[in-house]
Amino acid sequence: MTGASRGIGRACAGALAAKGATVALLARESDALDEAAEWVGGLALPCDLRDDLAMDGAIARLREAHGTPTILVHAAASHYRIQKLHTVRDEDARTQLALDVGAAERLCRKLVAEMMVARFGRIVLIGSVAAHTGVAGGTLYSMAKAGYEGLVRGLTVDYARRGVTANVVTTGIADTERIQERTRGDAEARAKLERFTATRELTTPEEVAAVVAFLCTPAASAVTGTVVEATSGAHLHNGW
Prior knowledge:
It is built from nine helices and six strands. By secondary structure, the protein is an alpha/beta fold. Strands 3-4-5-6 form a four-stranded parallel beta sheet, sandwiched between helices. It has a two-stranded parallel sheet with strand order 1-2. Helix 4 (90-118) links the parallel strand 3 and strand 4 (121-128). It is globular.
């Protein structure tokens, strides 16, 4: 479980653990990661997924502790600066894409063979409505999230017959710590975000996690190569 120290990633780790999964939690923030791992009874693996050697080390420690991993949930994502594409520096673009695209692809590439051999695997990538609507000042983010959809479709074509499913769970505006910090003390700002949803309520991390946890079960074997919208209807809003 990547991006597991807070927000949707942390909630997903808890939901998976509640279903009996042995969970390894990856994130850069070691203090928050340790707390999350203690909460779910999982293994904390501090790791910068933009660093290939660090990723390989984390995977090796995971295999040593728990054997072959059969579930990958990738929620890690960059906290990018909102700016138009022509103003993004090469270095910043490489850094963002290394996590938002490169890490997802490389994790899948490193783990899918073992899932195939086990005849069971579940890959869930946390996407965004930005893949379909675009987002002002976030061209690279939109591109990365759209890439997730191509990735799970390709994985499905190649590996579904071996028991490996791959899906994207799309979020809209989730009520994470980041959103709470942005809207604290500003009821109108929060109400404006809520109006982007059909339910007029922000999606909670736990609601997203419930969808993710189901997709990781044997009961979800028929669901693969698709995008599941856990957005409280925000994906239907045409005013982005």
